[in-house]
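2024-03-11 09:14:02 DEBUG pipeline.ingest accepted 1 chain
2024-03-11 09:14:02 DEBUG pipeline.ingest length=392
2024-03-11 09:14:03 DEBUG pipeline.predict start
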Amino acid sequence: MSSKNKNTQLVSSGRKKAYTHGVVNPVIQRASTIVFDSVSELKKAAKTRGDKTLFYGRRGTTTHFALQEAITELEGGEGCALYPCGAAAISQTLLSFLKSGDHLLMVDTVYEPTRDFCDKILAGLGISTTYYPPMIGADIKEYIQDNTKMLFLESPGSITMEVQDVPAMVKVANDHNLMTVLDNTYGNGLHYRPLEHGVDISIQAATKYIVGHSDVMMGVAVANKKYWPTLREHSYLLGQCTSADDAYLALRGLRTMAVRLNQHEKAALEVAKWLEQHALVDHIRHPVFTTCPGHEFFKRDFDGSNGLFSFVMKAGNQHAIDAFLDSLQHFKMGFSWGGFESLVTASLSMKGLRSQTGWEHGPVIRLHIGLEDVEDLIADLQQALVIYEQHL
């Protein structure tokens, strides 16, 4: 982290005069072709493979440079690559460093599209994947093969929110010369900075809390000094880019991210505490709660939480789940999170979502707590749980 206070950093990063031209926000600079006044200027730009050099629209404009600089400072890395969505940031990072014959260690509770990419794309390229239990810690060494190249983490994990012992796993990875990558969408760079814990590349779906308004798709990957040149160049060669307008909206979202996260966190904890007392609820999967696996690592490594958590029902069936979802008014069904609105998804079981980690509990309901009044959200859940019980 910078020596600046976090809130100050979010407000001031990426606002050099070269980007703002004397106004508050960086200007939107749209471009495909960059024109040069001389051959020497063109050659200099072509030779400069680094950041913040106008060369061609795909490499970025000053709007993109401002966002990259701000995210790099937020995550404490060497450089930041921008992608059209979080899934693209993940797939591009994997493709940048894995080749045929390599072996990947992937956490079993990973975001479903990441699993699909490993099973359907990487496998076809001759890259094998082994899924490991998220709470394995230093015992990850038992999964390392002679051709293992990368350890991929996601903490907390998708849906069931397991928090991994990242420092212990990174130490093992370093001892075996493996690079480490972590999906940090939950940690958002404000509450968790993987590179400070030895991770090589931190990925976020900026679609979520960075943008914060459910109107832009974007992914970011921040790498350390060792891996940044390769990530930057390979992303460029594979045509990864975003629009200047989307970069501008991400910058705008970044300015208020801390304020929004404070409200998301406060409201989510209030809703989770209410649910914890409900007779139908078995336990809460929120990293702040002791019932969440890895809670001790969350307390040690994170600076805060956000609006996303799950709760596990004692019993249920698909009819009860469907009736519960259909009756909700303030919670909308949707697969994303991180915006101002409250969202809900539900799973009867974890079948198909993991292969190495068993699930011996009831149905899982995942909530994203938005910026609505908490009293309205609790009342909505209360009436929906009455209907849920009627269908058991």
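2024-03-11 09:14:41 DEBUG pipeline.report The chain has 13 helices and twelve strands.
2024-03-11 09:14:41 DEBUG pipeline.predict end
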